[in-house]
Design brief:
The protein is an alpha+beta fold. The chain contains eight helices and 17 strands. The protein is globular, with a radius of gyration of 20 Å.
C-alpha cells in the first residue's frame, strides 16, 4: 500500500520499549488459496495446520530436506485460505521454492504484502487493549471485514498485537486513535519486543543455518511430532526422539554501541576466527548502549560463560532468562 507508506513516513519514530505503536511493513505476507491449500501446507510445514481455524493463529516453520530452517511463520486461516507472516525479505524466494512443490495440487501462491497495511502494538493501556478490533487472548485472531488482529504473548506485562488492514482509510483511523495513547516507534522496537519474547526469526543471512530445535521452536509449540512427513521431518524427529540436543537459542544483553547483525559469529573466548560455536539470530540496540540479542550456540559453552562476539570479544554476554521453560 503506497498510500500507507507515504503516511507512516510522516510519523516520528524512535526506539521505545513500552506502550508503543509502529509500522510493520517489514513483515511480508504470503497468501495461500485453493482447494488443496490445507493439505499443501500440511505437507510442507512443521506444525499441524489442522489444529487452527479463523480464531487461532499458529507458529510454524519451513525447512530443507536436511532439516535446516528456511523460514518461520505465523499462519492465519482466513475465509479463502491462509496468510503466512514472515520477514518481507524472504517472501519472493519462499514463493519460488514453494511453487516448485505445487505440481498438480489446486493451490495458488501470491505475495499479499501490498494488499495489507500492517502495524504492531505493545501496551497495557486499557483504552487500547479493550478496543473492539483487537484480539483479547494470546494466540487469538480477531477478523472483521477489513481488519485482522493477532494477539501475541505478552512482554513485560504488556499485551502485544499485529494488525493487518485492507482499507487505507480504516488503518489511518486506527493509527490516529491508538497513537493518541501510545508513543510512535520504529520497527526496531517491535524487533526488540520479539527478541525479549524469545521469538526466533529467520532472515536471508541466517537461512539454512539452524535446525528447528536449535531455534527453540519445540518450546514454542512451533512443531508437531505426531503429524505426517514434511521436509526435514526425519532430522527433526531423530533429534527429538534419539538425539541429544547440543545447541539452543539464548537471550543475552550486550553493552555495546555496535549491535551485531543476524548471522554474525559467536565464538569461544580467545578464538581468532569463526569456530562454529554459534551465530546471532537477531539483535537490536535500545539506543543507549544496550543491545538485546538472541543467539544460537553450543549449550555447554553458553552455560559455562565461554562465549563472546567474534568481532567484539571484549563485550560480555550477560544472560537473560527466556520467558518460557527451556
Amino acid at each position: 500500500m503506497k498510500d500507507w507508506q507515504t503516511f507512516v513516513e510522516t510519523q516520528a519514530a524512535a526506539i521505545e520499549t513500552s506502550n508503543f505503536i509502529c509500522d510493520a511493513s517489514e513483515l511480508g505476507l504470503i497468501l495461500v488459496t485453493g482447494d488443496d491449500a490445507e493439505s499443501f501446507l500440511q505437507n510442507q510445514f512443521s506444525n499441524d495446520i489442522s489444529h487452527i481455524d479463523e480464531t487461532r493463529f499458529q507458529l510454524s516453520s519451513y525447512s530443507t530436506p536436511k532439516g535446516r530452517l528456511l523460514a518461520i511463520f505465523q499462519i492465519v486461516q482466513i475465509s479463502n485460505g491462509y496468510l503466512l507472516i514472515t520477514p518481507l525479505g524472504l517472501v519472493e524466494s519462499l514463493l519460488q521454492r514453494l511453487q516448485m512443490f505445487v505440481i498438480q495440487a489446486k493451490v495458488n501462491l501470491a505475495n499479499a504484502s501490498e494488499h495489507f497495511a500492517r502495524f504492531a502494538l505493545q501496551t497495557n493501556n486499557s483504552d487500547v487493549t479493550q478496543h473492539p478490533v483487537l484480539a483479547q487472548q494470546a494466540g487469538q485472531v480477531l477478523q472483521g471485514d477489513t481488519v485482522i488482529s493477532l494477539r501475541l504473548n505478552s512482554v513485560n506485562n504488556e499485551n502485544r498485537y499485529l494488525v493487518l488492514c485492507l482499507s487505507i482509510d480504516e488503518v489511518k483511523s486506527l493509527w490516529d486513535e491508538f497513537s493518541q495513547h501510545l508513543r510512535v516507534a520504529s520497527f526496531d522496537a517491535w524487533r526488540m519486543s520479539e527478541i525479549k519474547a524469545g521469538m526466533p526469526v529467520i532472515y536471508p543471512q541466517t537461512s539454512e543455518e539452524f535446525v528447528l530445535q536449535m531455534s527453540n521452536l519445540d518450546l514454542l509449540d512451533g512443531v508437531s511430532f505426531k503429524k505426517g512427513c514434511y521436509p526435514g521431518q526425519e532430522i527433526v524427529a531423530r533429534m527429538h526422539y534419539l538425539g541429544k540436543l547440543k545447541r539452543r537459542m539464548f537471550l543475552t544483553t550486550l553493552k555495546t554501541d555496535q549491535c551485531p547483525a543476524p548471522g554474525d559469529e559467536i565464538s569461544a573466548k580467545g578464538a581468532e576466527s569463526a569456530d562454529g560455536s554459534g551465530k546471532v539470530v537477531d539483535a537490536v540496540s535500545d539506543g543507549n548502549g544496550l543491545c538485546y540479542c538472541l543467539y544460537v550456540a553450543q549449550i555447554k559453552k553458553a552455560a559455562n560463560n565461554e562465549l563472546c562476539l567474534l568481532d567484539q570479544p571484549q563485550v560480555e554476554l550477560t544472560p537473560v532468562e527466556l520467558p518460557y521453560a527451556s
